[in-house]
Amino acid sequence: MAERVPAPNAPVPEEVGRMYDRMTLLGADLLGNGHGYNAHLGYWDGPHSELTYDQATDRLTDVMAQRLRLGSGARLLDVGCGVGAPAVRIARRTGAEVTGIAVSREQIARADELAHTAGLRGQVSFRQADAMDLPYADASFDAVLAIESMPHMPDRGRVLREMRRVLRPGGRVVLTDFFRRRSPSPATHPLRQTMGSTTVPLDDYPAILRAAGLEFVEMLDITEETVPRSFAALAEQAKDLHLAPEDTEAQCYFNPQAVIDTDLLGYLLVAARRPRD
Ligand SMILES: C[S@@+](CC[C@H](N)C(=O)[O-])C[C@H]1O[C@@H](n2cnc3c(N)ncnc32)[C@H](O)[C@@H]1O
Q1: Atom 14 in ligand 1: residue holding the nearest Cα
Q2: Residue ranges lining ligand 1, Cβ < 6 Å
Q3: Domain range enclosing 140
Q4: What is the pTM of this model?
Q5: Minimal-distance CA residue to ligand 1 atom 10
Q6: Which atom number of ligand 1 is nearest to the Cα of residue 60?
Q7: DSSP-assigned letter for residue 179
Q8: In total, how many domains does the chain have?
């Protein structure tokens, strides 16, 4: 394995994995079943959209999946797959073969259960792995998806290079990421302290993609469609969970509004492509 020189305050994958282990176990208890929930923000097409939060999280999966251009039998890698809900949804709707990876053992166990329950075990599979060192051969996927996992990566450039490596020429990567809308005040919790996450300046993305050998396709600021209503919905749901106020980790996951200044947070959708050789 190549030597890692993490940036100061960079998330540590093993710690992030442990955080998601705990949250998955808590989620399984607190949310009643732990099957099939999306661990990402919702997407509402406009202020008049009447989607529930759960429907809106599926809507975000669909908004991203349509940009992957998957046909039946296409091979998709889902980097940071959570408990597998997006992978299962995309496999069902497109006929693609989906492989999901995440650093959390508990998430992978739950994702396996979900694929089994959905009757998709031949088409969808999961594995515990670190996106910084993808355990796959060069050019082994037609597309790569990363829904909200980039904020946890110690080195975004390295992960994007890994994505490029495993993509076939012409294959697409579609991801979401958090960006900073303005500088945090000293009193503000950096994301790192609460969720093992960092944000990135919006304007840096095209250069990060280029440096990783990827061609820019599309970059959308989807903050308005996602952040305010998602955080409000999570705060509402969290009222029933009786989370201890001092448990910032659980608060952050189930009621991020309690610990994150949402005015700081922007949400970004990026599509890129491995150039054809
Ligand atoms: C916010 S959750 C999103 C989960 C899933 N994409 C979804 O939308 O439901 C972030 C995911 O990234 C994964 N993750 C974080 N750091 C990772 C790393 N270094 N390598 C692989 N997965 C990672 C976590 O285990 C978790 O599944």
Answers
A1: 80
A2: 13, 16, 20, 38-40, 80-82, 85-86, 101-104, 107, 130-132, 147-149, 152-153
A3: 13-273
A4: 0.94
A5: 149
A6: 8
A7: E
A8: 1
